[in-house]
Amino acid sequence: MDEVSQVFSSMGSFSDAFGMNQVSFGTLTGFYAIECGNILGLGGAFFAALSASAILAKEEKRKTAEFLFTHPVSRSRVLSGKLLAVFLQIVILNAAALLFALICILAVGEGIPWEEILLMHLAYFLLQTEIAAVCFGMSAFLRSGSYGAGLGLAILFYFCNIIANISEDVEFLKYITPFGYADGADIAANGRIDAGPLVFGICLGVLGIIAAYARYTRKDLS
To answer: Is-above-0.90 flag for pTM?
Structure first.
């Protein structure tokens, strides 16, 4: 595995893009940072985008808004219920992923690096929450299913982080994308979540939720 790690870390821009120059595949933490970053990071981002991007727009696309809003329920309450539903789906996904990861680590006889594992999973949870919040805001402005827009946003964020890893000239992109603070290799190497991109991401997510409430409560439903 030492030889494999040397090969992966000496592949130039490819190694930089995925953080393989910072961690070793010969260690549990290094292997987990790369694999989990690709699967739970990108896959979780897709899940969050799919869950949130059409949760409001589908009411108009499927004509269920006509039935829903004839009931004595305010739009704000509907928004809050849908937002809570998205959040709970993300919580369940991450809880299940963390539980099975810990079981598998114990099953192969390895000690659990608690700090690194919990930090990485916390970062992925925050990443998914931010993407869901932004897509939730987007959904309030659309009248039809917006799966493509949500997935496109997640992919854009992902490639922004890859580009920032390759070139120092565009390192500022790490402050725009949630993958900037949820980079498993960075977390494993530094033992912390980068606070700068995280704060920006929290603000972006809050703005997405505010935009959803501001738009949807005044929107003329088709």
So the answer is: no
pLDDT of the residue at 207 = 95
Element (H, E) at 204: helix 195-216
Distances (CA, A) of 114 to 32, 122, 192, 203: 12, 12, 13, 28
> Hey, is 1 helix, strand or coil?
coil
Per the structure, the complete domain to which residue 65 belongs is given by: 27-216
Locate tokens 């953080």: which residue? 19
Position 204 in a domain: yes
Contact 147, 51 (CB under 8 A): no
Q: Which own/partner pairs from 6-13 qualify as long-range (CB within 8 Å, at least 24 positions apart)? A: 13/166
pLDDT tens for 51-76 read 998 888 777 777 777 787 788 888 88
- What DSSP letter does each residue of 55-123 carry, written as one string? TTHHHHHTT-HHHHTTSS--HHHHHHHHHHHHHHHHHHHHHHHHHHHHHHHHHTTPPP-HHHHHHHHHH
Instruction: Flag whether 174 is in a domain.
Output: yes
In what helix (H) or strand (E) does residue 170 lie, and over which residues does it extend?
none
Total domain count, the chain: 1
